[in-house]
Amino acid sequence: LKSYKFGSLAGEASIATLKEAGIRLELVSKDSQNIMRLHAGRVDLILMDELLGWYLIRKLYPNEQHLFTTLDITFEEMINQSGNPNWDSYLMVSPEYPNAKALTKRFNDALKRIKENGVYDDILDKYGLDLSP
User: To 10 degrees, the CA torsion angle through 41, 37, 23, 67?
Assistant: First the structure.
C-alpha cells in the first residue's frame, strides 16, 4: 500500500496506524473533499464509511458513479488481519447531552425493531451492502 496516496479525514483514528506503516496521507476537513480529490486523481484511495461515500458520490457526481468502486475488504478487516484492534463504528452520545441515556435506549430499541421487521436488511439491499461476516 506504500505506493498509494490515501485521503482521510483529519482526526480519524486510523491516521496513526497508516503513518506508522509509512502510508502517504493527505488530510482534509470534509468528507466531500475526499470524494472530489479521489475523482480528480489527487489521491488513490480514501478511508470513508461506505454508505456515506456512495451518498456523496451520488450527490456530487450523479452521472459518474460507475467511475468509483469499493474494496472487497474494509480497512478495519485489513487492520484486524494484522493483529490490531477492531475499529467498528458506534453511535456515541455525550453524557452531557440532555437525556443521553434515554436517547441511547430509544436508538437501540429502534435499531432492534428495524432489524427484526426486515427494514434494516432492505436498507442494506438498497445500497448494495453486505455486512455478513
Answer: -50
Local structure of 113: helix, strand or coil: helix
Q: How confident is the model at residue 61 (pLDDT cuts 50, 70, 90)?
A: very high
Sign of CA dihedral 117, 122, 125, 127: negative
What is the reported pTM? 0.61
Q: What is the dihedral sign for C-alpha 66, 132, 47, 111?
A: positive
Give dist(CA 38, CA 74) in Å, integer.
17
Helix axes 100-116, 119-126, angle to 10 degrees: 80
Q: What nine digits make up the cell of 73?
A: 475488504
pLDDT in tens, 78-87: 655 544 444 4
Distance separating alpha carbons of residues 133 and 114, to the nearest angstrom: 20
